[in-house]
Design goal:
By secondary structure, the protein is of the alpha/beta class. The protein contains 14 helices and 8 strands. Helix content is 51%, strand content 15%. Strand 3, helix 5 and strand 4 form a beta-alpha-beta unit. The chain is globular.
Length: 271
């Protein structure tokens, strides 16, 4: 198995096919699997590697674990943060947060020795790494969707009998489907978070990230609320000729409000 986020330099099309936090609904993550399959198969073929299937993590969230309570973006900016991939490091850099890529196996020691103060991790494996011993305070950070391609080198695979190759492919697809079903049906991360708390952890309020950034850039909180509502309404419109005029009007409204955000605040400022 190869985590795509580890190869952004050599295969950016794989690393950024589905970055963490982009999709928040399990149904959307499963629905995009055929696209991921095409991306991964094409990329691995260039390396002489046989792509078998994509495994989707059964975790749905990313948490942030800290040595002391951290409840705002300003507070996290004062900490040294562990992340596991370049996409996360780049994202936090844009938020002026010092983030260092540290492998999972080195995370505990890095926290214990003070190399970092906080760490991002998904809750499913957090309790097995014992971070509650050094970072008992945690909060929800974002949605999580990580595809893990299962691959095998062409040469050893081609040396296997045909029926064994077929079994390998069938079992890979079977496991991929089972993990997708588990993602849709399960609450794996909730159960594991409860285990973490039982072992000494403490959940804090969800870490606010988006709103502080928007207000820091000078946007009134009303504006993104209106924009998100309009974009959701556009997304809910059915693809039919009868809805085209409404779609055009709504899209034009979004464009105008993007260029002239002060229009959104005209009536509220009169109150």
């Amino acid at each position: 198995m190869l985590y795509p986020g580890h190869v952004p330099r050599d295969a950016p099309e794989m690393a950024y096919a589905l970055p963490e936090g982009v999709l928040g609904e399990a149904e959307d993550i499963v629905a995009i699997k055929p696209v991921l399959n095409d991306v991964y198969e094409t990329s691995f073929n260039k390396w002489g590697v046989k792509y078998l299937a994509t495994f989707i993590s059964t975790n749905k969230t990313i948490n942030i674990y800290c040595k002391e309570p951290v409840e705002s973006l300003d507070e996290i900016r004062e900490k040294k943060l562990r992340v596991w991939g370049k996409a996360l490091a780049d994202t936090f850099a844009k938020l002026d947060v010092s983030a260092t890529i540290i492998p999972q196996n080195d995370m505990y020691v890095a926290l214990q020795t003070g190399v970092v103060d906080c760490a991002t991790h998904y809750p499913g494996a957090a309790s097995t790494l014992s971070p509650q011993e050094v970072t008992p305070y945690w909060s929800y950070l974002s949605a999580y969707a990580v595809p893990i391609p299962l691959v095998v080198s062409h040469k050893p695979r081609d040396e296997l009998p045909d029926h064994v190759q077929a079994i390998l492919s069938e079992e890979a697809e079977k496991l991929s489907a089972e993990l997708a079903d588990a993602l849709l049906a399960g609450n794996y991360e909730l159960v594991e978070s409860e285990k973490f708390d039982a072992a000494g952890g403490q959940k804090l309020e969800d870490l606010p990230v988006v709103l502080p950034v928007l207000t820091g850039l000078g946007f009134d909180p009303v504006w993104p609320g209106v924009m998100i509502t309009l974009m959701i309404e556009v997304g809910l419109m059915q693809a039919a000729w009868a809805t085209l005029p409404f779609w055009l009007v709504m899209t034009a409204a979004i464009a105008i409000l993007t260029l002239l955000p002060q229009i959104v605040l005209f009536l509220p400022r009169l109150m």
